[in-house]
Design goal:
Largest sheet: 5 strands, antiparallel
CATH topology of the domain at 385-542: Heat Shock Protein 90
CATH architecture of the domain at 385-542: 2-Layer Sandwich
Distance between the termini: 135 Å
Number of strands: 24
CATH class of the domain at 385-542: Alpha Beta
Strand content: 15-25%
Number of helices: 23
CATH superfamily of the domain at 385-542: Histidine kinase-like ATPase, C-terminal domain
Length: about 750
C-alpha cells in the first residue's frame, strides 16, 4: 500500500475534506522526493568518480566530493567556475544527444603553476528545473596514461628488438626457415637464403615444398624427410649433411651448396607441435677442404705407388741394359760377327735397347711426378720445352692414342727457367683433358694439336682439341679448385694446380673456346701456356747433348714420334748419346760426362788408362748385381753382397776402394750401411757411390745432402758407372776416407 493510499485512509477516518486530502498527498510526495534527492545526493557525493553539472551559461552548479578532490577546489570555489575553464577542449553538444565519451585534459585552476591532468569524461546533455545543460562523469587517467606510456615504450622496445632480431637473422650466414607441420609449406625464410640460393623470398614462399625440393639428390631428400617426420612427432632429429641445388628455370645456371642441417619442432605451452624450424649451415668451403684433403691423400698414395713402380721398373731395366751390353760384346766377337744371324741379332739388340730406353724415360718421368716438389722454385733449371712435351706425351700416349690423332706444330724455342717436373705435370694435365674432351664427341675427326713457338719475351705452348668446347658460362669457373664437368670421373684439381704452377713461375695460362675454324663452324678449346724468357737471357747450361739446343739439332723424340719412316735401329743409334741422366739436384753430387759416348761406342772399346780398383757392389737385386759385377769385372776387382749384413762381413776381412751401394734395400738400407761404415772411423774406409731406381723422399734427400756422395739413377750406362768409380777413388785418395756418419735414424740401426 502506497504512502498516498495511507494518507487517503487517514483523511477519511478523520473526516478531512477532499481538498485537504489532496494537499496533504502532495506534501507527502514532496517529502518523498526530498528524501530521495538527499539519498541520491549522498550517493553521488560519496562516489569515487568525480561528477560535475553546469548550467546553460557553462557555470558549474553541482560538484561531488570526488570532483572537489580532483580539481583541488572546495565545493564553494568550484560552484560557479566555468566548465570551459576546467575543460578548454570540451565539445559543445546539442540537447538530447547520447552520452559522449571523450579524452580531455583537466586544467587545475588557481594553481601557481598550471597543471593538466588526463581524464576520461562522459558528457550527457539534460534539461531540468533549475535548467541544467549537461553533467559529466570524470575519471582521473593519470595512472592509466602512465601505464599506457609504459606499454607503448615496451611495444617500441619490442618492435626494435624484433627489427634487430630480424636483421640478425637475415644477415646471419645461415639459412633459417619455418615450415607448417601438416603441409610442409614454407612460412618463413631469412634474407641470407635469398642471397645464397639466388631466389626471391616471395617466390620461395610461394613455391610448394621449396625446402624439400632444394634437397635434390636422393640421399639428401631422404635425410630431410626423416628429420621432418621425427620433428613432426615432437622429437629432435640428429643433424645431417646434404647438398642443396636450386635453379629458377632450366635455362638458369643452378646454385649448389653443401649444408649441415638441424631441424627441430616448435612446441606450444601444451606440447603441441605448431611449426617445424630448421637451420642450414653452408659448409661448402669445409666440404671442399675435406675433398681437397681426400684428393691430396689419394695423390700422395698415387705418388707413392708411382715411386714404387719406378723402382720396380728401373731395376730390371738396368739389368736389361747391362745384359744388352754383354750381348753387344758377344756379337762383336770375330767368331760370331761374320755369321748370317749376327746382323739380325745386332738389329734386334738395338730394338731392345730402344725399348729399354723408352721404359727408362717413363720410369724417370714417374719419379718426377711422384715428387714434383723435388726442385723448389729457387732450384729451377733451364728446361728444354720440347723434351718436356715429349715426356708428357710419353706418359699420356696410351690414353691419347685410344681416342685421337696427334698433330705436332713444333718450332725451335729457347729453354725456360722452370721446374721440369712441374712443367711436365701441367702438360700431362692439358693433354689428358684434351683426350677426354675429344672422346666425348662423335661428329668430327678427333685431333689433338701440340704447338710451340716463341717471341722475344716468352715461350708459348698450345694444346688444342676438336672436342665440344667450353661454354662461356664455364670459362672462368674451370680454374676453380674442385670444379669439374666430368662428374665422378674428375677431381677438379688439375687446371687449378696447373694455373698455380704456371703463375708461380711467372707465366700465364689461358683458354680460347670455341676455336673459330671457319665462318660456319667453331668448336674445341685451345689452352695456351706462356713462360717468360727474362731469366733465360742468362747463360743457359748445356743441354743433355752437351751444348745449347739449336734449330740445327736432330729431331727430338717428340718429332720422331710423329714420323712413320724411321727404323728402330736408327732411333737407338741416334739416342746413344742421350742416356739416362744422373740426378742434377743440389742435394747430390752431379756426375756428368764431358764427352758422351758416340752412337758407335761399345763397352768392348779399349778401356781408359785407369788403374784397377777394388769395388764392392751391394744390391738386393741379384740378377742386376751379378750382371753389373760381370761388366765392372772387366776393368776392376769386384765383389758382390746382396744385403747390408753381407757387405759388413766382407768389409771385415777385405779392403775396398769403392762401395757401389743401392740406396733402398730391405733390412739394412744403403743409408744404414753408410752410417755403420763411417762409425768405424777406419782410415782406409772405402768411398761410397749410391745407386737408386726409386723416387726421392724428403729423408733420402736430407741424407744425400748431408753425405755429399755421388748418385747413379738406374738404369745407367756402364760408362757412367766407371766414371763414378774412378772419380770417387781419386777423391778418396786426395781427401782421405769418409768422415763421421751423418746424423740420421739409420745411424743407430
Amino acid at each position: 500500500m502506497t504512502r498516498s493510499t495511507l494518507a487517503n485512509s487517514a483523511v477519511q477516518g478523520n473526516g478531512v475534506s477532499g481538498e485537504e486530502s489532496d494537499r496533504r498527498e502532495v506534501q507527502v510526495d514532496a517529502l518523498d522526493d526530498v528524501a530521495r534527492c538527499r539519498r541520491l545526493a549522498a550517493i553521488l557525493d560519496t562516489s569515487s568518480q568525480a561528477m560535475l553539472a553546469w548550467d546553460v551559461n557553462g557555470g558549474v552548479v553541482e560538484a561531488n566530493h570526488a570532483a572537489c578532490a580532483l580539481t583541488r577546489l572546495s565545493r564553494d570555489e568550484l560552484l560557479g567556475t566555468s566548465i570551459h575553464e576546467l575543460f578548454p577542449e570540451l565539445p559543445r553538444l546539442p540537447h538530447g544527444e547520447a552520452p559522449l565519451p571523450v579524452r580531455l585534459e583537466l586544467v587545475l585552476p588557481r594553481q601557481r603553476v598550471e597543471r593538466r591532468l588526463p581524464v576520461s569524461v562522459v558528457v550527457q546533455t539534460i534539461s531540468g528545473v533549475p535548467p541544467l545543460v549537461a553533467h559529466a562523469l570524470i575519471r582521473d587517467d593519470s595512472r592509466f596514461v602512465a601505464a599506457e606510456q609504459e606499454v607503448a615504450s615496451h611495444l617500441t622496445r619490442i618492435r626494435l628488438l624484433e627489427k634487430e632480431l630480424r636483421t640478425l637473422l637475415d644477415n646471419a650466414p645461415l639459412i633459417i626457415f619455418r615450415l607448417d607441420p601438416d603441409t610442409g609449406q614454407l612460412s618463413y625464410l631469412n634474407r641470407h637464403a635469398e642471397r645464397l640460393l639466388r631466389v626471391p623470398l616471395d617466390e620461395a614462399l610461394r613455391t610448394r615444398d621449396f625446402i624439400r625440393r632444394a634437397h635434390t639428390d636422393p640421399g639428401s631428400s631422404q635425410a630431410f624427410d626423416l628429420a621432418f617426420a621425427q620433428a613432426r612427432g615432437g622429437g629432435r632429429p640428429a643433424p645431417y649433411e646434404a647438398r642443396l641445388r636450386w635453379f629458377r628455370s632450366p635455362a638458369d645456371e643452378p646454385v649448389e651448396i653443401a649444408v649441415r642441417s638441424t631441424v627441430y619442432p616448435l612446441l606450444s605451452d601444451t606440447g603441441e607441435v605448431v611449426a617445424i624450424e630448421g637451420i642450414l649451415v653452408d659448409i661448402s668451403a669445409e666440404h671442399e677442404a675435406r675433398t681437397r684433403l681426400v684428393q691430396a691423400d689419394r695423390l700422395f698414395t698415387l705418388g707413392m705407388i708411382a715411386a714404387g713402380v719406378a723402382h720396380e721398373i728401373n731395376n730390371p731395366a738396368a739389368f736389361l741394359t747391362l745384359g744388352l751390353t754383354q750381348l753387344d760384346r758377344l756379337i762383336a766377337d770375330p767368331a760370331i760377327s761374320g755369321s748370317a744371324g749376327a746382323r739380325d741379332a745386332s738389329r734386334l739388340i738395338e730394338e731392345l735397347r730402344a725399348s729399354v730406353d723408352r721404359i727408362s724415360v717413363i720410369a724417370r718421368d714417374l719419379r718426377y711426378f711422384a715428387n714434383p716438389a723435388r726442385q723448389e722454385p729457387a732450384q729451377r733449371t733451364f728446361v728444354d720445352v720440347t723434351h718436356a712435351l715429349e715426356s708428357a706425351l710419353t706418359l699420356t700416349r696410351a690414353q691419347i692414342m685410344e681416342h685421337a690423332r696427334i698433330v705436332l706444330d713444333l718450332r725451335p724455342v729457347p729453354p725456360v727457367l722452370m721446374n721440369d717436373g712441374r712443367l711436365g705435370q701441367v702438360l700431362v694435365n692439358l693433354l689428358v683433358n684434351a683426350a677426354q674432351a675429344v672422346a666425348r664427341q662423335t661428329h668430327r675427326e678427333r685431333v689433338i694439336t701440340a704447338a710451340t713457338r716463341s717471341s722475344e719475351s716468352y715461350v708459348e705452348i698450345a694444346i688444342a682439341d676438336t672436342g665440344a668446347g667450353i661454354t662461356p658460362e664455364l670459362v672462368d669457373r674451370i680454374w676453380l679448385p674442385f670444379f669439374t664437368t666430368k662428374g665422378d670421373a674428375g677431381t677438379g684439381l688439375g687446371l687449378s694446380i696447373s694455373r698455380e704452377i704456371v703463375e708461380s713461375s711467372g707465366g700465364t695460362i689461358s683458354v680460347e673456346s670455341p676455336i673459330h675454324v671457319s665462318r660456319e663452324e667453331s668448336y674445341g678449346a685451345r689452352f695456351i701456356v706462356r713462360l717468360p724468357l727474362d731469366a733465360a737471357k742468362l747463360t743457359a747450361p748445356p743441354s743433355r747433348s752437351g751444348r745449347a739446343p739449336s734449330s740445327s739439332d736432330p729431331p727430338s723424340a717428340l718429332q720422331r714420334t710423329a714420323s712413320t719412316s724411321e727404323r728402330p735401329g736408327e732411333r737407338a743409334a741416334d739416342e746413344r748419346g742421350d742416356e739416362a741422366d744422373i740426378t742434377e739436384a743440389d742435394t747430390t753430387e752431379t756426375i756428368a760426362e764431358e764427352h758422351p759416348p758416340s752412337s758407335s761406342e761399345r763397352p768392348s772399346d779399349a778401356p781408359r788408362a785407369h788403374p784397377r780398383r777394388r769395388v764392392l757392389i751391394v744390391d738386393d737385386e741379384r740378377p742386376l748385381a751379378r750382371t753389373l759385377a760381370a761388366e765392372l769385372g772387366r776393368r776392376h776387382d769386384v765383389s758382390v753382397a746382396y744385403d747390408g749384413a753381407q757387405a759388413l762381413e766382407l768389409l771385415t776381412g777385405h779392403s775396398f776402394d769403392v762401395i757401389l751401394c743401392d740406396l733402398h734395400m730391405p733390412g739394412m738400407s744403403g743409408e744404414s750401411l753408410y752410417a755403420r761404415v763411417c762409425a768405424r772411423n777406419d782410415p782406409g774406409a772405402p768411398a761410397f757411390v749410391f745407386m737408386t731406381g726409386a723416387a726421392f723422399g724428403s729423408e733420402s734427400e736430407a741424407f744425400l745432402a748431408t753425405a755429399g756422395r755421388p748418385l747413379l739413377e738406374k738404369p745407367f750406362p756402364m760408362a757412367r758407372a766407371l766414371e763414378a768409380i774412378e772419380r770417387a777413388s781419386r777423391e778418396r785418395a786426395d781427401r782421405g776416407p769418409d768422415h763421421a756418419a751423418p746424423s740420421s735414424p739409420a745411424a743407430s740401426s
